[in-house]
Amino acid sequence: MRTGDMREFLETGVIDAGRMRAVEGNAVALGYPSLLMMESAGRAVADAVLSRTPSRVLVLCGRGNNGGDGMVAARYLQHLDSVDVVYPDCGTTTPSAATQLALLRHCSVALHTVRCAADVETLSRLFDDADVIVDAMLGTGASGAVREPFASLVARANTNSAPIIAVDIPTPGIRASRIVSFHRPKVEGADVVDIGIPFEAEIFTGPGDLTLIPPKGSKAHKGAGGEVLVVGGGPYQGAPYIAALGALRAGADIVRVASPAYIPAPDLIYERLEGKAITADHLATILPLVDRADTVVCGMGAGRESHDVILAVAEAAKRAVFDADALAKPLPAAKETIYTPHAGEFARMTGAEPPTDLVARGRSVKAAATAGTILLKGPVDVISDGSRVRFNRTGTPAMTVGGTGDLLAGVVGALFCHLPAFEAASLAAYVCGRAGMLAAEGRGNGMLATDMLDGIPEILFLPPAPD
């Protein structure tokens, strides 16, 4: 199937900084280097400047990739009477911006460095003489109050009558006449330029999605990684433990298993449920654990006879992931919910088998995602929250071995402690697929679900260096 057949799943409208960073990372992984993206973006800015037929242009740059875009634009404008580039010579410069600055040293442009408000004041003539000012100071990654020397650059630019063209997003406080955004708008009212990012960078999951994981702070305490409760087991003893270990490997700090079955695992906290199956008698033990958990993962190995208990757990849970035996009618729903069915379980949930055609499958999952986010497992996973649809193609046929779905549910649960449902489900599908591929490299079709465990933190927390 051609990607063009899947255009209906492209998202539209304003895109936030985190999602755009993920899309760009996915584009790099597909073979579109960040320098080439920057080249396309800068050329688009230069075209916007030239549409005003200026003679003298002032380009205000930061040291990030937004500044790099401005430097590319300056290079394409070097044939004009005067092009002045102002940038700070303090702080950290991104590798791509450093490459563009090095190129500018060989171009017919004037470079000016600033460190403080006084330095900006010495450049007043450049502001007064400019026909167009380009704002490439602070991009989508900026946060907090605008500091010097950018605060003075913004104030000085605002006193000039020349039009100001903002690159991707205006620096806070600047008077932008026009905003040129790339790929999708970052703010309302921006003019959007296509810079050639492949469709698949947005439709499919990829390594760029790893940038969504919030870092653990240097002052983090026990429990900051999240607390997950796994409720399951009985007819099938190992399933909840595989899920629980997956949650631990995906960054959860504390993982409890409430189950009638006990399997020694020193990293897990076992909450004993007497008997051979989970029954209503166990709710007095389970519900206090639900109250303290950030996410509940429920259903694996529990058997059909425990469904009333699962419904009670769902009613009490803040966030929950339902898998396996929990995926039956009436469908459990927590305040925020993720369902992780395979095709047969999806049919049990919805009354209809999912189509084999991928586009139709995407539409089917989207239509079914009314009570929460659905992650439909398959050769290509389909994830939808009822408005967005994403696909994941990582994985291997070796993952048909039992337990991989339980592992996925646990990884979803850990990520759900910190990410919204759709993002947690999409990222978990990507990570588990990659972990399965790594495990299969050494064991082929003899791979076990537990062989995937070591690959999960390697993929989640030790990503390769960015382009």
Would you kindly provide a written description of the structure presented here, covering whatever features stand out?
This protein has 467 residues and is an alpha/beta fold. It folds into two domains: 14-203, YjeF N-terminal domain (Rossmann fold), CATH 3.40.50.10260; 212-461, Ribokinase (UDP-N-acetylmuramoyl-L-alanine:D-glutamate ligase, 3-Layer(aba) Sandwich). The chain contains 16 helices and 16 strands. The protein has helices spanning 17-29, 34-50, 65-76, 95-104, 117-121, 124-129, 150-158, 200-203, 239-249, 283-292, 307-316, 343-350, 358-368, 404-416, 421-443, 455-461, and strands at 56-61, 82-88, 110-114, 132-136, 164-167, 178-182, 191-193, 227-231, 254-259, 269-272, 295-298, 319-322, 336-339, 373-376, 381-384, 389-392. The protein has a nine-stranded mixed β-sheet, sandwiched between helices. A seven-stranded parallel β-sheet has the order 3-2-1-4-5-6-7, with helices on both faces. α7 (150-158) links the parallel β4 and β5. α9 (239-249) packs across α14 (404-416) and α10 packs parallel to α11 (307-316). The two termini are 29 Å apart. The relative contact order is 0.10. The mean pLDDT is 95.
Low-confidence stretches: none
- Main sheet makeup: 9 strands, mixed
Tally of contiguous helical segments: 16
CATH fold-type name of the largest domain: UDP-N-acetylmuramoyl-L-alanine:D-glutamate ligase
Note the beta-strand portion. Answer: 15-25%
CATH homologous superfamily classification of the largest domain: Ribokinase
Q: Give me the count of strands.
A: 16
**CATH architecture label of the largest domain:** 3-Layer(aba) Sandwich
Coarse morphology:
elongated
Number of domains: 2
Neighbour order of strands in the largest sheet: 10-9-8-11-12-13-14-15-16
Helix content: 25-40%
Whole-number radius of gyration?
26 Å
